[in-house]
Every structure is written in C-alpha cells, then in structure tokens.
Design goal:
The complex is a heterodimer of chains A (322) and B (444). By secondary structure, chain A is an alpha/beta fold. Chain A has eleven helices and nine strands. In chain B, helix 4 links the parallel strand 10 and strand 11. In chain B, strands 1, 2, 3, 4, 5, 6, 17, 18 and 19 form a nine-stranded mixed beta sheet that branches. The longest helix of chain B is centred in the middle third of the chain and has 17 residues. The chains are: A alpha/beta (322), B alpha/beta (444).
C-alpha cells in the first residue's frame, strides 16, 4: 500500500481536547486514521512521515496502554520517540510540570504527548512550549484521542455517527473519556445518553445536550452503542457509592440489562475494565458484541493520524526561537 | 495601580496648613456632596466647606487645586492579607502599604493569618508599630477567634482587644464547629466585640476548587456549591439569635446567603456583611481556560449570584465593600488550577472597580464611597472615615471618570495576582493624604 493519502490540513497547533473542534476537523482526523488502520494490518508498517522528528511521551500519571499506543504510533511513522515518566509524588507537582516543560522545550522536540493527573495541566504546559502538544489525558477534563478512537471504531462498524443512539454509562463525574466523548458524539450528531447514579454524574451534565438516566434498562432502551466507563476509585475523595456489590447490581453491565438495548448493540470500554464492577466478564468477552479489543487497535491508528497531522504543521514553524 | 509616585512622609516632617480647593466634596458621614474645599492644619482637618477656596484660604502654606475632582475621606478596607510576618516574599507591610496608598486606602484592617498567627499581644503590637514606622496607611489588626486558627479553643480576645485588635476572625478559615462558634459569639458579646466569619461549610466545600455548575463540569474541576456558604450563614444566624452579640459575614457571594442575611436584619439581629469587588464585577466565566488569577475563596459564582450581590449592595443588605486583598506569588499561582492558591490582590483596584456600581447606575456615587468609608468605620469603630474638623487629615482625591486599564505587572503590590488583569476601568486615585501628608500623588 502507498503512503496514506495526504488529507486536508488540520488547522490547530495542538490537540488539547475535542472542545472547539468542528465536525469537519473531527472528520479530517477520522479519515486520516482510517488509512492508518489498513497500514497497521500489513506486515510492513513503517512510514517516513515523521523521519527526523522527535516525539516525547511525557507522562505524569502512570499508563501502559496509552503510552504504548503513542510510542508505537510514533515509531511506525519513523519518529524518534522518548518516553518520560515523571513521578507526581514530589511536593511541588505543578512546579515540576513547568520546569520539566521548559527543560524539554529547550531540546527542540516536535511533538509532546502529555498526560497529567490535574485538569488543565496540559493546557498550562502548552502555553510554555514551542512544539505541538497532544493531550493524552488531563485529570477529569479531556482525553481526545480516546474519543477519536471510539468514534473511529463506531464509524467503521456502523458506517456513521450521526443519528446513532449512544449510552455512556457509569462514573461520568471523574471521567475525561466521558467528557471528550460527550463533546465529540454530540458534535457529530449522535443522540447521547448518560446513565449513572446521581453521585457520579457531574452538575448540569444535561447542558452538553444529552439525556440523563439513572436506571440502566431505561437508559439502554433502543441504544446502538453501550459505552461503559471505568469506576475511578483512585480519583474519588470520599464515598460516592456504598459498595462495589451494590454498584454492580444497579449499574454493572450484564446480559440482563443489555437486553434493553438493540439486539446487535455494540459494547465499548476505554479500558482497563474492572470486571465484576462496571462490566460482567462474560459480556466483556463476548466477541459478537464487545469491540473492546478493536478499540485498542484503532487507538494506534488514531494516534498515528494525530502525530502525522500535527507534525506537518510544525514544518511551517521554521527555526523556532526559545 | 501606580500611575503616580510615593512620598516618604515621616512623622517628623514639619507640617503647615494645606488648603485643598476646587473639589467635589464627598462625605457620606454627613451626606455632604458639594463643591468646596478642605483646610488641614498639621495632621488634622480644621475646616470643610464651600468657603474653602483659593481666595478664602489664601493664608494657607500650601494650596492644592483639585480641579473639580472628588475629595473624600481616605478609604477604609476591612479585609486585607499582608503576609508579614511569615511570608514576606508575597507581601510586606511596606509593599502592600504602597498598594494601599495607590488605591486611596488610608486605613486597613489585616487578617490574623500570618506566621505566627495574630493571637498574642506582642503580635498585635508588632503590626501596629511596623505600620506606624513606615508612615504609609494606618493598619489595625484582627485578632484570632481561636488559638492558632484551629477552631477549637477560644483565643484571649478580651486581652487582644485591649491591645488594639479591632475585631476577631479566623481569617480564611470558617469557625466550623457550632459549639465553638456559639461560645465565641457568646463570649465576645461580653465585651461587645465583633466576630467576623468566613462563611463556608468546610465539609461540603472540601475538594471544591471553583463554583459548582456547567463550567466546572466542562473543565473537569471539582465544584464547590454555593450551598456551602448559605448553610453556614443560616447556621450562624441561628447561633446569633441564641447568643446575642455582633456577627459580620465576610465576602458574601451568593443569592441565598444574602436572602438569609436580609431577613435576619429585618428581624432585628445585629448582623452585617461585606463583599469584595470580584463578586459584583466578575463571575465564574472569568476562570475561562483555567485562569488561576480568578481562583478565589469563595469561588467566583454564576451570573445570577453576581446580580444578587449588586442588588444587595443597592438595598443595603451588604454594608461594606472590602478588597479581600490576598497576595500570592507566581509559584503559588502558576500551577494546575486545582493546586493553585486562592486569592487575588485588590487594594489598587478597590475604588475603580467599585465605581462601576456608580457608572452602571446601581448606586449613587455618595453611597459607593459610603461603603468604603463611613460603613467600615462605624462597623469597626475606627477613628477614620469622616471629613469633619478635628478628624485626622486622611483624604483621597480621585477622578471618577478617568479611564485606565489594569495591568497586573504594573501593580505596586509585591504579588501580581489580580483577577482584574487587563480590565478597562473608570476612576483613578489622584492623591492620597494620611495625617496631613501626601503619601501618593499622580502628576496632573
């Protein structure tokens, strides 16, 4: 296969979130990703798009899946990829954020891929550097490449996003994946529902233009897609649900609740899933319904597209002054 | 905002008589709003009125032509954090004294949340002595209500009052325990002392970093509901009814809390409150893309609450406007939003932003000035805030219409964390006089 076709240019310097992207811009990213899916299925996966470029994966929060996915994406495009995991245990977390950004900036990277435990930290960092920045997840704010890979998965399976009924279920309050998905899916014309206990839904969530449900069966009624979220115990300050057992009883996805959705509804999860907490093991492993593994595959393609398109924009910056 | 220069006016400087003529005199204490002048002799005002003119006061050693600008008692700011002693890198009595005089503030009351806490006679005296030696604004300290601001044991408030503490507060911390608050109100009433509460229920506020609602949700930030303020206001009003005494709520920011205070006043409780300019001039949208200069305590609220604050200023429910001046250095603010410190500097923008209430037609000019002079003076029983013969010659001269743009980098305050950075404002301090000495002046 030839190199992926040159698609329209992506008119932003950074990818900090889905917020602010137009349907056309999202489509540009998804179309470019589609081409990379095909490339990744071949034996020879390497392309020259980012030869000579440096990508730094800067992770202030532990991650295996997302970091590996970005690393593979960069390497398949021939970029020099460096992984940095910065502990967040030091007292001056934020100070180390700015300091690290300034230090790395001095080494002339072309793209910084950043994950941080605090909402807004990646935006703050992007203001201090000259290169392109991709948000790989900031606090409970956004995780744009996850939303893109979810959209790509759905689009490849069902051929569209517009008009589909999609339920996002569980711990929306703490989830950056949910926020990015709410923005992307509503922007692309899907009908979105959120389902969860009131303690795990953020204030005024209906202002995203979504329907809110507190009963799984009622919310899943007629859905094309069931998107489960991980219960983020590590982000919870205090007691949002009385027990895992009770949570699973009312909000865990099992065949009984799933029966309310369309017969061929697809099941998605951003991973890593807590089996027996938000999703039953059998359901998660049901190949006829679950597309969880496909999501991981799409992730590499989406990140290749993002690196490629943002990398092209950095060409025009010329000699960058510090 | 330093458009002018400071003069190091020291107590030993010889002082003659000065006539400030051709001014629009504004004295909320007497309701005076007329053209005229003020004559000072040494550190005191000796005459005020229409007959103080260039001709009528020709015997004065110095004549200052105010060119029709406003002349009012020097402003009194009852909520200022100084950071000295303990955090001098954020602000000192000198740096914040310069900010105060540039803002027309001639008297301010500082919070006890320094290191050490102002809970001993020696610390009360330290602040008063340091401020006197600097010759800038006059400083009165609050005393702590509870020892080390821990909210457990009541501090020696009777003794501290004797040493010069004008009122009592735990600063940015709420007195959370109902029993401690009851006893504090009850004990303070023994001496007729005022308790000032930071109204925020700590359990409900825990973890919250901005106003709860759609914007916090979209930014992925933990929300802090306005109910946290309302709950503590309502609780304390019941405790006040139980104990008698005098209670003042600092920086009230939401509609429901103001409703509760309005009702309590109507019912005859001895309750007062203030707010700060951010709560009537800004709302939660100022946080924008994680702007930490807009991270305040209490958080900036929604537009409905902002409108309620304006209405409460107009109907008198809110007695006083205070700056809530809280210097924070760059390292405390240049952080991810949730980790950044609360607070904004406000001394230099206090008058200009408050004048928006007048320019926008919500309050008459004399009432705006009253909330910055007469009202705080009466609340804390301070020897300031009047243009009368025999009073200290503490005066601010300002042009209510002159426009300028707030530029945080140009502030005199040691810390630059202004939530109003970049805001165009109308109204500029032209001259600040303390005890008869000009300490700050803009060259006309």
């Amino acid at each position: 296969m030839a190199d992926p076709p040159v698609t329209a240019a992506f008119p932003h310097r950074h990818l900090l979130g889905i917020e602010g992207l137009s349907p056309d811009e999202i489509t540009i990213l998804l179309d470019a990703s589609d081409a990379y899916v095909e490339l990744n299925r071949q034996a020879e996966k390497k392309r020259d798009a980012l030869r000579g470029r440096t990508v730094i994966n800067l992770f202030f929060e532990s991650s295996t899946r997302t970091r590996t996915s970005f690393e593979l994406a960069g390497k398949r495009l021939s970029a020099d990829v460096i992984n940095m995991s910065v502990g967040t245990s030091s007292v001056n977390k934020g100070e180390s954020l700015i300091d690290t950004a300034m230090t790395l900036n001095a080494m002339h990277p072309d793209v910084l891929v950043v994950r941080h435990g605090e909402s807004g930290a990646v935006t703050l960092l992007s203001e201090k550097v000259n290169c392109a920045v991709i948000n790989a997840g900031d606090g409970s704010h956004e995780h744009p490449t996850q939303a893109l890979l979810d959209a790509l998965t759905i689009r490849r399976r069902l051929g569209r996003l517009e008009g589909l009924t999609i339920a996002i279920c569980g711990d929306v309050l703490h989830s950056r994946v949910a926020r990015s998905n709410l923005l992307l899916l509503t922007t692309m014309g899907a009908r979105v529902r959120v389902i969860g206990p009131r303690t795990l839904l953020p204030a005024d969530v209906e202002r995203y233009g979504v329907e809110v449900f507190h009963d799984m069966k009622a919310g899943l009624e007629g859905c094309d897609i069931v998107m489960m979220l991980r219960l983020q115990m590590e982000r919870m300050q205090g007691n949002f649900i009385p027990s895992i057992r009770e949570y699973f009883q009312f909000f865990g996805l099992d065949y009984d609740k799933l029966a309310a959705a369309k017969e061929d509804a697809l099941i998605m999860h951003p991973g890593p899933s807590n089996r027996g907490v938000e999703i039953d093991s059998e359901v998660a492993d049901d190949f006829s319904r679950s597309v969880i593994r496909e999501q991981v595959e799409m992730g590499v393609a989406v990140r290749m597209a993002c690196l490629d398109l943002l990398g092209r924009n950095t060409e025009e910056l010329g000699s960058r002054n510090l | 905002m330093a458009h002018g220069n400071w003069t190091h006016a020291m107590p030993d400087d010889p002082l003659g008589s000065v006539a400030y003529v051709n001014a629009r005199l504004l004295d909320p204490a007497t309701g005076l709003d007329a053209m005229g002048g003020v004559l000072t002799e040494g550190e005191k005002i000796v005459a005020v009125g229409p007959n103080i003119t260039r001709e009528g006061a020709s015997l004065a050693d110095t004549i200052v032509d105010c060119r029709g600008q406003c002349l009012a008692p020097g402003l009194i700011d009852i909520r200022v954090q100084i950071r000295e002693p303990g955090e001098e890198h954020k602000g000192t009595l000198e740096s914040e004294g310069r900010a105060a005089t540039a803002g027309g503030v001639t008297t301010y009351v500082c919070l006890p949340n320094t290191t050490p806490v102002i809970a001993e006679v020696s610390e009360v005296e330290f602040v008063a002595r340091r401020a006197r030696l600097l010759g800038l604004s006059k400083v009165y300290p609050y005393g702590a209500v509870t020892k080390d601001l821990k909210g457990v044991e009541i501090a020696e408030i009777g003794t501290l009052a004797g040493a010069g503490a004008v009122a009592f507060t735990d600063g940015e911390k709420a007195i959370a325990d109902a029993q401690v608050m009851r006893r504090a109100l009850s004990y303070a009433s023994t001496f007729g002392l005022l308790i000032v509460q930071h109204p925020e229920e700590p359990g409900l506020a825990a973890g919250g970093v901005m106003n709860e609602g759609e914007i916090a949700t979209r930014l992925g930030l933990p929300g802090l509901p306005s109910a946290a303020e309302t709950i503590l206001v309502e609780r304390d009003l019941r405790l006040l009814a139980l104990t008698g005494g005098r209670l003042h709520f600092a920086h009230v920011s939401c509609a429901e809390a103001l409703d509760a205070i309005r009702k309590a006043k109507a019912a005859g409780l001895r309750v007062t409150c203030d707010t700060a300019p951010p709560y009537f001039a800004l709302n939660e949208t100022s946080v924008g893309d994680y702007r930490t200069f807009a991270k305040l305590s209490p958080p900036l609220r929604g537009e409905r609450d902002r409108e309620a604050v304006v209405a409460a200023l107009a109907d008198g429910t809110i007695d006083v406007i205070a700056s809530d001046h809280a210097p924070q250095d760059e390292d405390s603010k240049r952080l991810p939003f949730a980790q950044a410190a609360n607070g904004g500097v406000g001394l230099e923008t206090l008058l200009s932003v408050s004048l928006e209430l007048y320019h926008n037609g919500h309050l008459p000019l004399l009432e705006v000035v009253g909330k910055l002079t007469r009202a705080p003076s009466e609340l804390m029983n301070l020897p300031a805030g009047k243009l009368s013969p025999g009073e200290a010659a503490d005066i601010v001269i300002f042009d209510p219409d002159r426009a300028w743009k707030v530029d945080a980098d140009q502030l005199a305050s040691k810390s630059k964390n202004s939530p109003f950075d970049g805001r165009p404002v109308q109204g500029m301090v032209i001259r600040t006089v303390i005890d008869g000495r000009t300490v700050y002046a803009v060259e006309n």
